[in-house]
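Notebook, p. 212. Picked up where the previous page left off. The plan for this session was modest: take the two constructs that came back from the sequencing core last week, fold each one, and keep the raw output in the notebook itself so nobody has to go hunting through shared drives later. Recording the first one now, exactly as returned: residue sequence, then the C-alpha cell string.
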Amino acid sequence: MGASADDGTVGEESADTDAGAVSAAKPWAVYLLHCAGGRSYIGISPTPHERFEVHRTGKGAAFTRANRPQALAAVVWFENRSTAASMEVRLKALARPAKLAWFERFAAATASMPATLDVGLASLTSR
C-alpha cells in the first residue's frame, strides 16, 4: 500500500497489529489527520487515538514525519480490518474535498456502532 498525492496527500499506515483471525473480529477505524501545510493523511488502525500519538511524535508514516499531524480530525469505525482497508482505498480515489466531506458526514454515524462496507460505500454516493 502506500501514500498517494493529491491536493492533500493521503496515505495508509502499515499494520500495527497482527492480521490474524483475532484482528478480523474487532473493529478497525479509517481516520483522518489534519497535518502541517494544510495537508491531510488517511490511515487505518484498531486504535486510532494511539496511532495519532505515534504519528504526532514523528514515529509514524514517512508522510506524517514530513508533515506533522496537527489534529485527529475524524474517526470512522468499520466492522473489521478488511472493511476499513477497502474503504480507505476507495477514499484515496476521491478528490480532497470529497474525502473531507465524506468524513464530515459519516464519522458521527459510526461513533456507537461500526459500519459495514456496503454502508460506507453507500455514503460515498449519498451527498
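Okay, moving on. Second construct, recorded in the same format:
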Amino acid sequence: MQRLVHSLSELKDKKIAIVGLGKSGISLVKLLSTLGVKVIVNDKKNENEIYKDLGHLSDRVYKVFGGGHPPEAFNEAQLVVVSPGVPISTPSIVSAVYNGIPVIGEIELSWEILNILKPDIKIIGITGSNGKSTTSTLTYEFLKKDGKKVVLAGNIGFPMAEVVYEIYNKEIDIDYLVLELSSFQLEGIKNFKVHSAAILNITPDHMDRYSGMKEYIEAKAKIFQNQGGDDFLILNMDDKNTVSSIEYLRNIYLKKGKLPHILYFSRFQKVYGAFLEKDAIRFHLREELSEDIKKEMENTVLPVNSFKIKGVHNIENIMAASLLAFSVGCTADSIKEVVREFPGLPHRMELVREIDGVSYINDSKGTNVDAVAKSLESFSGNVILIAGGRDKDGDFTTLKEVVQKKVKAMILIGEASQKIAKALGEVVNHYFEKDMKSAVIKAKELAQRGDIVLLSPGCASFDMFRNFEHRGEVFKEIVNSL
C-alpha cells in the first residue's frame, strides 16, 4: 500500500476533510492546520456547536459542514480522515471512496506524519474487546519504570495526533509509544505498523456496528497486518476468536513474507509466552528470541498473590503486558515492581467501600457480556449484580451458567433491563429499578454480611449517563452517601 504522505511540505495547502469532531478530530485540526493544511471540518453537530468546540482553532479552519455528513462536505477534499465514532460505511464516505478520494482514520494519518518526523519510534499497540485500558496502562508503567521515554495514547488518555503535534513542536521527545486501539480506530488503517501488538480477546461487542463476528474479528486483526519478521504479536490462547485471527494473519503473509514472532498467554495451558501455573505467571521461551529477551524471561515468576489488582481478567492483562514489555527490552525487575504497586484503573473492579461486611464494587467499564462474565468469575459467589443500560446487541443468555453459580440477586436498570430479564430471569431473582440510586438502595436492602454488590452493566451507558465514567462516578457517590 503506497503511503499518502511522503513529506510534510506536500501537506501545505492540501484540502483534508476531518469527519467527526471528538477529541481525535480536534487534535487533528490542531496538527494539520499547523502543517499548513486547508482543513475542512464535518460533524453531525450544527455549525454553531462546531465553532464552539473548535474555540481558538476556528480561525485555522477552511470550511465547516454541520448537521450530518452531506456529500458536498467532501467535494473539495483530497483526503478524508474519519474519526473512530463515524462508521466508514456512512453513505457519503462510501461515495467519497467511489469517487477516488482516499479515506483513512486518525491513527493512519498520525502514523504517516510520525513516520516522517521520527521513524525510529517503537509503537506498541493493544486491542481487544475487554482489558485494553488496563493492559495499555500496565505496559506504559513497565516501560516507564524501566527508564524508557514513553507516552501512552490512543483510545486512552489523548489522541495519537496530539502526540505527533507535541513531537513536531519539540514539546516531547520519546522512543516508545503505547497505543490503546479500538476496532473503530483500526478500521481506518492502511500502512500503520506496530513493533509489538497484542489482541487480548475478541468477544461479541459493538454488534450494532458490525454485520457479524467475522467482520469484527477482521477489524481487530488489522493491528498486525503490516508487521514483519522483527516484530512481535501477542495472542490470547484461551480465546477462540483471537486464535481464529491467526488464519487472517496467515492469509496476509502468504502474500507478504515473514510472520512476526508470535507469543501466547494462557490461564489453562503451557504455551510459548506466558502461562499460569501454581498460582503464578511463568514464561516459556521460543528459541528464535534474542538472548537479552530470553535472559529476562526465563527466570521470571510473578506470584498472583503479589498483585495489587485482583480478578482473573487482570491475570490475563498482566500476562499480555509483561510479554509486550519483554519484547521491547524491559527487565523482569521493572515488571515485578509495577505489579506489586499498580492499583488498577477507576471503574474497573474498583472497591468503593465496605459497609456492614458488604463490599461495593464499581465495574462500570464492564460494557459487554464477556466483561460481566470475567468479573463474576473473580468472586466465589453471593453477588448482587446491578446491570443494564443501552444494549449493544449482546447475547445475555451466555451468562446463564456463571449467573446461576455466582449471583444471588440481579437488579436491572436502563433500556436493556427487559431483555436481560428475559435471558436470565429464570435462573436468578431479579428486580427492576428506575435509576442508579434506587438500584443501590435495593441492593443494600438485599445484601447480607459477606455479599458483594457489583455494578457490571454489560451495556453502554448512553441511555442514562454521559459515558461509563459518569455512570461509575454516580454509583460511587451513591454508595459513599449510604
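Notes on construct two before I forget. DSSP finds 17 helices and 20 strands in the chain.
Flagging for discussion at group meeting.
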